[in-house]
C-alpha cells in the first residue's frame, strides 16, 4: 500500500510515474512528505515544476529530509519554488505520520 489518497486515473503517464515515485522513495518519512505533496499538487504543477519535482525526487532521502526539516541548509541549486512549496506543505507542529 502506497499511502496515496489520490487516484491517478485522470493523470497523464508522466504525472502517474511521478506520483508513484513520490510515494516509493525508500524512507517512509520521505514517502509521506513527497507523496502527500504530490497527492495535493500533481494535477496542477506546470511542466517546469514537474521537472523540478523530478529533480527533487532524485535527491537522497537523508539530504532532502534534512533540508525540509531545516536541519541542513538547502543548496542554492535546489532552493527552487517547488522546494519552497514542498517545505511549506510539510508542517512541523505535529508528527509526520499523523
Tell me what the structure shows.
It holds the Pfam family Sdh5. Keywords: Chaperone. Belongs to the SdhE FAD assembly factor family. It comes from Bosea eneae. The chain is mainly α. The chain is built from five helices and no strands. The protein starts with 12 loop residues before the first helix and ends in a 9-residue tail after the last helix. The model has no long low-confidence stretch (mean pLDDT 88).
Short description:
This protein is an all-alpha fold and 98 residues long. The chain has helices spanning 13-23, 28-41, 47-57, 61-68, 81-89. It starts with 12 loop residues before the first helix and ends in a 9-residue tail after the last helix.
Averaged pLDDT: 88
- Runs with pLDDT <50, length 5+? none
Distance between the termini: 16 Å
Helix content: 40-55%
Structural classification? mainly alpha
Note the main sheet. none
Content of β-strand: under 5%
Encode the helix/strand succession as letters: HHHHH
Gyration radius over CA: 13 Å
What's the total helix number? 5
What is the number of E strands?
0
Family: Belongs to the SdhE FAD assembly factor family.
InterPro entries: SDH, SDH_sf
Protein name: FAD assembly factor SdhE
Organism: Bosea eneae
Task: Provide the descriptors you would attach to this structure in a database record.
single chain, 98 residues, mainly alpha, 5 helices
Amino acid at each position: 500500500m502506497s499511502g496515496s489518497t489520490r487516484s491517478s486515473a485522470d493523470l497523464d503517464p508522466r504525472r502517474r510515474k511521478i506520483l508513484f515515485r513520490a510515494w516509493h522513495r525508500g524512507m517512509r518519512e520521505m514517502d509521506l512528505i513527497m507523496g502527500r505533496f504530490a497527492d495535493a499538487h500533481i494535477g496542477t504543477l506546470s511542466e517546469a515544476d514537474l521537472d523540478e519535482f523530478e529533480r527533487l525526487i532524485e535527491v537522497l532521502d537523508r539530504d532532502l529530509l534534512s533540508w525540509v526539516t531545516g536541519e541542513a541548509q538547502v543548496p542554492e541549486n535546489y532552493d527552487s519554488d517547488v522546494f519552497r512549496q514542498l517545505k511549506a506543505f510539510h508542517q512541523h507542529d505535529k508528527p509526520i505520520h499523523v
